[in-house]
Amino acid sequence: MNPQLEPGELPSREPIAERTQSFASPKEQDLLSDSALKKQVEKLNQIGVALSSEINLERLLELIVREARAFTFADAGSLYILDRGMLYFHVAQNKTLKRRPEAPPGFKPYPLPLSKESIAGYVGITGESLNIENVYNVPETVPYNFNPDFDLRNEYVTRSMLVVPMKDREGQILGVLQLINATNEAGLVVPFQESVEHLVMSLASQAAVAIRNAKLIANIKALFEALIRYSASAIDARSPHTAGHSRRVAAYSEAMAAGINDETMGTFRDVFFTTEQMEELNYAAWLHDIGKIGVPEQILDKENKLCAEAMATIATRFDLIKSLRVHRVWLPAFTEKKKAPLTPLTSKEAEDAEQEIERELSFISKVNRSPFLSDEDLKTLEEIASKTYEDLQGHARPYLTDKEVECLSVKQGNLTDEEYKRIQTHVEHTFNIVKNIPFTKTLKNVPFFSASHHEFLDGTGYPRGLTSEELPLQARILAVADIFDALTAVDRPYRSAMPPSKACQALKAHAKAGRLDRDVVNLFIEKALYEKI
Predict the structure, then answer these.
(1) DSSP 398
(2) CA distance 121 to 175
(3) What whole-number distance in Å separates Cα of residue 38 and Cα of residue 531?
(4) What percent of the chain has pLDDT over 70?
(5) Which of 68, 106, 114, 57 is nearest to 87 (CA)?
(6) What is the 3-class SS of 211-226, one letter each residue?
(7) Which residues contact 314 (CB under 8 A, 6 or more apart)?
(8) Mean pLDDT in residue range 450-454
(9) What 3-state class would DSSP assign to 440?
(10) Do domains 16-216 and 237-298+419-531 have the same CATH topology?
């Protein structure tokens, strides 16, 4: 297999017979002078610096082949990575094919068995470099041979080839670098000179170290991302009502950023998120609610105004009130002073008293479950709260405690002002947690972005009350994503899930009021980006 086509490169219509005339014999080659060799060594050092600074594996592999070709004046080059006994093709570049006006048939790479029968396989097994003057004249005495299929499909002629193993410092072979058709100053194809071969071996060794480092960094990054996703998901899962929230906010945010990148007109025509910026936004989205670890579960997962235990206490208390009022229960032994027995109620009085107490308890239960409290219901609640009864010790007790009245009097939702403030502190917790993560420079804004998802452009958000001048586009995107998911999430404790159409109307209302970014909201809705997750 001899892959030479890199993506986007175009084929030539020049016949093979004509192109074979451009090959030069070894006698026509210009030997490297001392000064030229010195320049090549300097270039090699520069390439080494470039390789060590690139941590993206895909870009690194492209860089290795590109620099190796430039270093040796090779027309083409390809690179294989060794993995689990197979050579996996990763890069193919070809200058001749790239200049052609029409694209050749698409190349579909496949794993190459690690066998001495192929040139790359032989180098991958033995660790020896091969400098072949003409691959069509390979001696029959060697175990490897050249496969001309690619040449035939693309009307290309492979002649000289320099194939070197990429070994790390421990001598382990990580891959194979294959350079094709060296050219001289006249553009003629010539064999690869021996003086260059040693330099290419050095370059390949540097490349192997860079590849190992890039893989190590990629593995560490994958582990870091897994920890972020696991931690965020675990915190979301503390409540069945928020499970999956961070994942969806990240997906909505990514869809908006990608949508902005696709815009060629309008507000976002000159805005483009780089790969690093997309990564930064993604991390911020996953981490935006990690501060909820500092919020008690009884608040985070509060379904009604009062918890089940509190309502059970009220029910028990009302049973006691009923017994005292209706059945005239009195135990003088438990009182500080003896009192005369209470006058029994008539049947009608007992029935009326019992029904009244049951109605009041039923009303309290209804108010407890309702996300909204009308003025009329608030008045009724206050009337019940103003009542007292005398307990078995003869002490006056209120029907409802001050804390119970405070919780039941919440007019919208189920959180008291104090509980709502506790919920809001999760943003500060998020910032304090995330700021201590040792992010790289390209991710330095993750703490700020993640802690700004509840800020509004008009300054009415929290925790810092930032305004539009202080909120970058990433924070505005997170705010839209967070609100949309909160509105459409299934079975939130304080309300039913909204259909997407109604949630979009709510986003537009926020944008019209100056709280959310109008352009981000419009893009999200008009492009139906919420459907892309």
Answers:
(1) E
(2) 10
(3) 59
(4) 83
(5) 114
(6) HHHHHHHHHHHHHHHH
(7) 306, 361, 364, 400, 404
(8) 96
(9) coil
(10) no
Spatial separation of the C-alpha atoms in residues 41 and 64, rounded to whole Å: 16
3-state secondary structure of 344: coil
Tokens of 356: 């009244």
pLDDT at position 39, please? Answer: 64
CATH fold of 16-216, please?
Beta-Lactamase (3.30.450)
pLDDT tens per residue across span 286-332? 999 999 888 887 787 788 899 889 999 999 999 999 888 877 655 44
Q: Is the peptide bond before 109 cis (omega within 30 degrees of 0)?
A: no
Q: How far is the C-alpha of 308 from the C-alpha of 311, rounded, in Å?
A: 5
Predicted TM-score (pTM) of the model is 0.67
The burial of 300, by beta-carbon neighbours within 10 Å (0-12 exposed, 13-18 middle, 19 or more buried), is given as buried
Residue among 506, 449, 443, 457 at smallest CA distance from 289 = 449
Q: Are 155 and 15 in contact (CB under 8 A)?
A: yes
Interval 464-475 mean pLDDT: 96
Task: State the burial class of residue 363 (Cβ atoms within 10 Å of its Cβ: 0-12, 13-18, 19+).
Answer: middle
Is pLDDT at 491 greater than 80 in this prediction?
no
Give residue limits of the domains in the chain: 16-216, 237-298+419-531, 306-413
Report CA torsion sign: 382, 384, 389, 391.
negative
First to last CA, the chain: 40
- Write down the pLDDT at residue 295: 85
Q: Is residue 14 left, alpha or beta, with left meaning phi > 0 and alpha meaning psi from -120 to 50?
A: beta
Question: pLDDT-derived band of residue 435, with 50, 70 and 90 as boundaries?
Answer: very high
Rg of the chain's alpha carbons, rounded to an integer? 37
Strand partners, 111: none
Interatomic CA distance for residues 193 and 138, integer angstroms: 18
Kindly report which listed range (169-173, 333-337, 443-447) carries the lowest average pLDDT score.
333-337
Region 237-298+419-531: CATH code = 1.10.3210.10
Categorize the per-residue pLDDT at 4 as very low, low, confident or very high, splitting at 50, 70 and 90. Answer: very low
Pairwise CA distance, residues 316 & 309, whole Å: 11
Give the list of residues 6+ apart from residue 289 with CB closer than 8 angstroms, or none.
232, 235, 236, 242, 245, 246, 249, 426, 430
